[in-house]
Task: structure prediction
Amino acid sequence: MCESLNIVRALTEQLTGAPDLKTFETFRTPGYTEHRVTNGTMKSHTIHTADEVAICKTYIKKGNTMENHQHPGSVELIIVISGEIKVVTATSIHNLKPEQYVKLDKGINHYVHAVRDACCMAITIPRDDGFPE
Result:
């Protein structure tokens, strides 16, 4: 059993990290960004952007998933305004409805799945490179 764990540990250390948000970008214009998700796009509008913090309002349709990614240099807060999403990390699953939120520390791999059509506020501290400007 110990040998198997050592093999898994050694292989895990060789895995590359999840991509950052820019990897999924399909369209960008000042104040607006679209990201590729399963079955379509996720749309984000800038509310505020500065080096120290970025806030955007994001829309994702039911059944769509923003694939596994990370924000290597930023903490992210996701607050649900309407609808329902599931935020999944390696160690947790957060089922979020309106007025609920999750805080993700820097570099945490995660994906977001829309259980219902959803509108969320996403905040990164400091501003993440993939966020709308």
